[in-house]
Amino acid sequence: MTALKKSPTVSAKASSKVVAKPTKPAAPVTAKRVTPKALPKKPVAAPAKPVTRTAAPKTTTKVIVAKEVKAEKVKKPKLIRDSFTIPKAEYVVVEALKERAGKLARSVKKSELLRAGIKALAAMSDANFLSALSAVPTIKTGRPSTAV
């Protein structure tokens, strides 16, 4: 008895389902003219230096790179623009304080002086704060009237 190898058979139903797809014709290949300028230049290889390795002790050290902690952006405080009325005598004191700061090698603006004064008042005890407030006379608010 001889063993016959069975060849794969395709049923009639399976062969009817196979549909050959039409192929698109390939685009014609056009030869481009190559000029010497278009050719890539071959890099000139440097003569190889002999590599000498010395037997170094194998030590592994781990370098831990700390990520920079980004400082949180400090939000600028919202600025409020305001106007006020001040007696001329007190305005002269503000100018004198500006000059005094300039002599101490610290130039200062009027608004900085006022803010420093506010901080000084806030740091006072209640008794000192009330005495400072009572030393300042009240004035009529608003723009001064123009005398004719």
State the helix count: 4
Class computed from helices, strands and strand pairing: mainly alpha
Low-confidence stretches: none
**Overall spatial form:** elongated
Rg? 46 Å
Tell me the number of strands: 0
Described by strand count, sense and barrel closure, the largest sheet is: none
End-to-end separation: 141 Å
Beta-strand residue percentage: under 5%
As a percent range, the share of helical residues equals: 25-40%
Mean pLDDT across all residues, rounded?
75
H and E string: HHHH
What does this structure look like?
This protein is mainly alpha-helical and 148 residues long. Helices cover 30% and strands 0% of the residues. It is built from 4 helices and no strands.
Key features?
single chain; 148 residues; mainly alpha; 4 helices; 30% helix
Short structural summary:
This protein is mostly helical. It has four helices and no strands.
Topology:
Layout: H1 12-17, H2 88-103, H3 110-123, H4 126-134
